[in-house]
Amino acid sequence: MKVTADLLLLPQWVVPVESDGTLADHAVVVRDGCILDVLPADAAQARYDATQTLALPGQALIPGLINLHTHAAMSLFRGFADDLPLMAWLNDRIWPAEKKHSSEAFVRDGTLLAAAEMLAGGITCCNDMYFFPQAAGEAFLQAGMRATLGMIVLEFPSAYASDADDYLAKGLALRDELKDEPLLTFAFAPHAPYTISDTTFGRITTLAEQLGLPIHTHIHETVDEIRDSLKQYGVRPLERLARLGLLGPNFIGVHAVHVNEAEIGLLAQHGCHVAHCPTSGLKLASGIAPVADLLHAGVNLGFGTDSAASNNRLDLFAEMRLAALLAKGSSGDAAILPAAAALKAATLGAARALNLDGRIGSIVPGKRADLVAVDLHALSSQPVFDPVSHLVYVAGREDVTHVWVDGKLKLNDRCLVNLEPDDLTARATYWRNKLTA
Ligand SMILES: [Zn+2]
Known about the structure:
alpha/beta, nine-stranded mixed sheet, 15 helices, binds zinc ion
């Protein structure tokens, strides 16, 4: 008797990521949102009776990509402030606009727009940091996208919270409320060393340890940040965080552009993770993270888009390719960050950073079915010697045809399933008009 299943996918190639290489003519079987089996296509059709069978000829099935650092709601600031360095961009443009406009409605609409863009581009999970995470959570749930919600903390007041204690209290209350949502997880998200006091970092360290949650923070993004830290604290930011006990396997440092050998050693020794955001680092002229040195030291790496205000795409195919090229070009080593390693960073590496690698990040039985089909049919993809090479060096997000999150179809033949593009465009236009009024 055949075993029942919900979905039988028959792509030309399965790229499990967990193990290197590619499985040709294999099937992925999904039941109850979970990957039930990965086996040769013939054997799968003999063994399983699936409600739906989908042939994906010429396509590669990969684990959903994970955006390890974003501010989803800021998609409403896409193109709002270009061609400025970080502090001018923040002080003169972004922070004043946020002060005036950030609200639950802004965050809900912006996060929905970002979720639509990410899902259509093969991103099934993101690590988000923004005000009103409650509204972001509602949007991710509406979109059916997996997310780690950042419990954002700053010392200064915003429309969302009055001081660090208030930010923390609001974040923790939200986590209590939503911690049983299967698609949502939580991380502490102190914004950056230059916006967080020692006292607050201390509290977050204790809470993160007690609750077993990641800490997600911007770190060593610019030369100015390091200079200011030396002036104010007498040490560079990472040294300060190390002294405060913040560094550990639950620490996700975003950017890590300006890190010296000792600091790379600190990150490696403490088992920290780095969210490498190559486009954002280039666009804000912050610099290029020393990825080759981080990898040689054994630091786990994932990729982030950062926000659509500093990128301006939430496109992990673009980040994978750029990360691989920059790592080679800046180190003089063409062998560093090969395609398989770049794909692994964008999936399993990011999952490990979020402490979600037991659930997502690769195509193996027992994990949740976050899956993406990428079309390698196009003439621009011919011929295909190695699908993994093509996924990083050739394919783009426009080649994503189908996306499942937790076994549920989110993109069907390049069409979003439960989000309405016209409605999202109307909301984005409404906010553009408000921002320019
Ligand atoms: Zn950021």
